[in-house]
Amino acid sequence: MRTILHFTFVLTIAGLLVSCGNDDAKTNKNTATQQTQAYSKTTPAQNKTSQSQVVQFGVTDLDGNYHSSDEWIGKMPVVINFWGTWCPPCRKELPDLVRLYSEYHPRGIEMLGLAVNDKPNKVRSFSQKMGMEWVMLMGDQAAGMFKVRGVPTTVFLNSEGEIVHKFTGMRNYEDLKKGFELIL
């Protein structure tokens, strides 16, 4: 039994490391629409008159306080970045995200950092050191909802809460900027 648990743990870690920098999942708008419907609080059959399906989830902040995604999502354009302090590609793209946040936050875009497989105290000190001024949350519970296969994964939602675009794997400033522009 112990061997099976050890083997499962090793496979899980290996999968995360291999996919940590995965660069193959540029999601088009059709796929994003399907994902939005899968994640939404209502299905199209339940709410045929509504064009927007709002993504909804709950997570905790670095102090352990619960937050619902409806604090942000459906009220303004939102960028969700799944990341980890332990992930080299995440660390490499952070300066570009810091720059983009400073450019787009004044224009009405909010960003949520959802740390996965991490400790709140480590996330707090690392994010402060890196100048990550956006909302920082623990994202393990939400990662499955967004079908996060690896980190970094960045999801772009319009002001109606619909997923417009999703990147899996590290991206540069120009690629990420395109995502920000899509949700303005």
Q: What separation lies between the terminal Cα atoms?
A: 52 Å
Radius of gyration: 16 Å
Anisotropy-based shape? globular
Structural class: alpha+beta
Number of distinct helices: 6
Low-confidence stretches: 3-19, 21-52
Which whole number gives the mean pLDDT? 80
Give the topology string: H per helix, E per strand.
HEHEEEHEHEHEEH
Biggest sheet descriptor: 8 strands, mixed
Strand order of the largest sheet: 1-8-7-4-5-6-2-3
The percent of residues in helical segments reads 25-40%
Q: Count of DSSP E strands?
A: 8
Strand content: 15-25%
Report on this structure.
- With 184 residues, the protein is α+β, with helices and mostly antiparallel strands.
- It has six helices and eight strands.
- It has an eight-stranded mixed beta sheet with strand order 1-8-7-4-5-6-2-3.
- Helix 3 (88-104) crosses helix 6 (173-182).
Task: Describe the structure in brief.
This protein is an alpha+beta fold and 184 residues long.
Supply the key terms.
6 helices; 184 residues; alpha+beta; eight-stranded mixed sheet; globular
Describe the SSE topology.
Layout: H1 2-19, E1 25-27, H2 29-39, E2 58-61, E3 66-68, E4 78-83, H3 88-104, E5 110-115, H4 120-130, E6 135-138, H5 140-143, E7 153-157, E8 163-168, H6 173-182
Parallel strand pairs: 4-5, 5-6
Antiparallel strand pairs: 1-8, 2-3, 2-6, 4-7, 7-8
